[in-house]
Amino acid sequence: MKRDVYLILREFIQNELRICEDLLLSGDYAALFKALDKLRAEARKSGLWNFTLPAEYEGHGLSYAEFAPLSEILGWSPLGHYVCNVQAPDIGNMELLLHHGTDEQQHRWLAPLASGEIRSCFAMTEPENAGSNPTLMGTKAELKNGKWIINGRKWFTTGADGAGVVIVMAVTDPDAPKHCRASMFIVSADNPGFRIIRNIPVMGDAGSGWLSHGEVEFVNCTVDESAIIGKPGDGFVLAQERLGPGRIHHGMRWIGIAERALSMTCKRALIRKISPNTVLADNDAFQSKVAESRADIEAVRALMLSTASFLDSGSMKSGRSRISLIKFLASDMLMKVLDFAIQTHGALGVTDDTILSFFYRHERGARIYDGPDEVHMMVVAREELKKYRS
Ligand SMILES: Cc1cc2nc3c(=O)[nH]c(=O)nc-3n(C[C@H](O)[C@H](O)[C@H](O)COP(=O)(O)OP(=O)(O)OC[C@H]3O[C@@H](n4cnc5c(N)ncnc54)[C@H](O)[C@@H]3O)c2cc1C
């Protein structure tokens, strides 16, 4: 992609999306979704669309490292990724179908997702079982007379409300070694065996549409044998392939949020008088925190780009520990930079008059979704200790 695209995208995010952000912050979701539909159509027409998909799906075939700087720019707005059809969970689901879907699955599901005609969701986590260890999964799928019958309950299925298709993980062979027990299935959202029980009221989320998180149920949900992705037992391998790049996509988005928060911090401190002759920006302690924020962002960006390049070289499995490392480092950086930005704004920081409080509420989940910090730390520590075990 030409360098111009970075500039066009920056302008698009900074100008066009600001109006939509006001609608988001004021809770006017009907107007917001209408405005977003218009912007999505414009973005698609201008080629600001599906950056990581190949040209046959209106994309640019960018590698993870090439997409990273764009994802960062998009991250400046909570709406950036959605407008360009690269929002989670759809981007992960589209990449999954691109790499592992059959021709039929790609034709039926990937094509309408890539055109933006439908949205999707990914249902793995369950209310009754620890999502940090998905091998404990309770949802089951049984093959009977050439049909898979799925039963179980999931929650935190992001974007389930209004999605056209659900990708669900279910146990297909409870007696297999634990990482070969589960499989992934594609279920049309209008399947009579699938139901959204409720939209979970999650802090920072709009409660409906693509910004929602559903609790969902599969009751004798029957799909064709061909609805499986890959082979029976491939579920965990596919989940790792899907979630690994997803963590990079999220991480770059978080860097964009952190950059915006730091820029708001500096601008505010330069005008906020804390004595007759000084502004907050003159304060030594404040300056140290600015330097720390800048250092944290740069360190995470450098590591994120090197991890993205590592994944581009096809080393998904051997990159697991690197992905875990960058996931907890990036979410921690984000929360620290956001907290400093809010502190700098004083009481204004905890109002909804700036976007900081939205980001703070919305992104607190970063330390939990796609695996909580503790689990990623465990992966890194195990890898480190392995070097010294006899
Ligand atoms: C905003 C948001 C969106 C999400 N979207 C989706 C989605 O689209 N699809 C989907 O399937 N899931 C989704 N999730 C679910 C998410 O992936 C899970 O919440 C996550 O994997 C943790 O599982 P859990 O909530 O069951 O926590 P639990 O497994 O119950 O863990 C609770 C806490 O225990 C601690 N802990 C757990 N394991 C260990 C350990 N080994 N060592 C030390 N401490 C530990 C951690 O502090 C952890 O936060 C989403 C979650 C959020 C918050």
Please give a structural write-up:
The protein has 390 residues and is of the alpha+beta class. It has 3 domains: 4-101, Butyryl-Coa Dehydrogenase, subunit A, domain 1, CATH 1.10.540.10; 120-229, Butyryl-CoA Dehydrogenase, subunit A, domain 2 (Beta Barrel), CATH 2.40.110; 236-386, Up-down Bundle (Butyryl-CoA Dehydrogenase, subunit A, domain 3), CATH 1.20.140. The protein is 49% helix and 15% strand. It has 11 helices and 10 strands. It has helices at 4-26, 29-45, 64-75, 80-83, 90-100, 103-114, 235-271, 284-312, 320-344, 356-363, 373-386, and strands at 120-123, 140-144, 147-158, 165-171, 182-188, 194-199, 213-224, 228-229, 273-275, 278-279. The strands form 3 sheets. It has a 4-stranded mixed beta sheet with strand order 1-4-5-8, with helices on one face. It has a 4-stranded antiparallel beta sheet with strand order 2-3-7-6, with no helix packed on it. Strands 9-10 form a two-stranded antiparallel ribbon. α1 crosses α3, α5 (90-100) packs antiparallel against α6 and α5 runs antiparallel to α7 (235-271). The mean pLDDT is 94. Residues 89, 122-125, 130-132, 156-158, 202, 213, 365, 368-372, 374-375, 378 line the site of flavin-adenine dinucleotide (FAD).
Taking the alpha carbons of the first and last residues, their distance comes to 49 Å
Bound molecules: flavin-adenine dinucleotide
CATH architecture of the largest domain: Up-down Bundle
Strand content: 15-25%
For the CA atoms, what is the radius of gyration? Answer: 21 Å
Number of helices: 11
CATH-level-4 superfamily name of the largest domain: Butyryl-CoA Dehydrogenase, subunit A, domain 3
Give the class-level CATH name of the largest domain.
Answer: Mainly Alpha
- Overall pLDDT: 94
User: What is the third-level CATH name, the topology of the largest domain?
Assistant: Butyryl-CoA Dehydrogenase, subunit A, domain 3
Oligomer: single chain
